Amino acid sequence: MPAEPLRLPLEIEDIKKVLPHRYPFLLVDRILEMEEDRRVLGVKNVSANERYFIAGPGGRPVLPASILTEAMAQAGAVLILAKPENRARLIYFMGIDRVRYRRPVSAGDTVLLEGTVVRLRARMGSLRGVARVDGHVVCEGQMTFALGDPPSA
Q1: What are the tens digits of pLDDT across the range 34-55?
Q2: Which of 58-62, 66-70, 121-125, 126-130 has the least mean pLDDT?
Q3: What domains are defined for the chain?
Q4: Coil, strand, or helix at residue 106?
Q5: Which of 20, 35, 69, 73 has its CA 20 to 30 A from that of 94?
């Protein structure tokens, strides 16, 4: 059965049709823009009741850098897995290079997650990810991924 077409914006239930992640590991709340094989723009709404907050400067809870990195990777994964020929495949986060964390992310922030294709091959590729809050870059880096075959029944 062919995969049903996706319509923007992708809401959480649409994202669940593309990504295998589920709560509490699903970190992308909405996909606003998507250009096939080129670019994706997603949203992560940061809530005060998320279990992985850590105490930052002055005791202010901040989102861990690893969670922010994973959110960027998930937005990129939506771009890659949204293609009908990739919909049943698995995507593996292989690495991140030149990552920089610029500012802390706190409860109440809305993080825009942008992924731009750097290189794309049949089974591997890389994306440049940039996360922004209120127009300020909070994190950036280049992520490498590999596509795996669909799980056998």
Answers
A1: 999 999 999 999 988 888 887 6
A2: 58-62
A3: 12-148 (3.10.129.10)
A4: strand
A5: 35
